[in-house]
Amino acid sequence: MAKCVVCEKGVHFGIQVSHSHRRSNKQWKPNIRNVKALVGGNVQSIPVCSKCLRSGKVERA
User: Fold this and answer.
1) What span, in angstroms and rounded, lies between the C-alpha atoms of 32 and 34?
2) pTM value?
3) Where does 1-61 have alpha helices with state H?
4) pLDDT by residue (tens digit) across 6-30?
5) Where are the domains of the chain?
């Protein structure tokens, strides 16, 4: 499953409502990227969301 290692952001579920008020299930997925980052002094490839990358919470290797 797509989940950020840093903030644990994952898939959100809800109901999408059209203009004619027809309702259908919808899921919103986070923007997850596999990034080589320093984790405990070692370089690992971890899934991280783009918000954590932009805010500088991840130190890339």
Assistant:
1) 7
2) 0.77
3) 50-55
4) 999 999 999 999 999 999 999 999 9
5) 12-55
